[in-house]
Specification:
mainly beta, 1 helix, single chain, 9% helix, 5-stranded mixed sheet, PH-domain like
Length: 113
């Protein structure tokens, strides 16, 4: 059975069962996280501390960002996986659509700052 695609842009694809982060392992490949493995997703305003000007990689050795041109985005999402120390930081091209979609998926949005 094929998962239904709910949202797609140049950075991520969200299906009814998972999120696919495109070019996550830059330049090597994508990363898929199943909704069942997601603990929470928080939303932050872009700032120097939240990684607004980081091209890709990590600034705190805990949150990994794929290359996504964060300096031009209005929201930064931080995904926390169940029983994992590492977090996934990401942005999208249409943050309001993704925010609404994640809110509807088992109330994944933890808080907005």
């Amino acid at each position: 059975m094929t998962a239904e695609l709910l949202y797609r842009d140049r950075l991520i694809e969200i299906s009814d069962d998972s999120i696919l982060f495109l070019n996550y392992y830059y330049p090597f490949g994508n990363k898929r996280v199943s909704f069942s493995h997601i603990d929470t997703v928080s939303v932050q305003k872009p700032s120097i501390l939240s990684g607004k000007y980081r091209y890709y990689g990590t600034g705190d050795f805990r949150t990994w960002f794929p290359p996504d041109n964060r300096s031009s985005r209005d929201k930064i999402f931080i995904l926390r996986q169940k029983n994992k120390w590492w977090r996934v930081g990401f942005t999208v091209e249409n943050s309001q659509v993704v925010l609404d979609l994640l809110k509807s998926r088992c109330s994944l949005i933890h808080k907005e700052s």
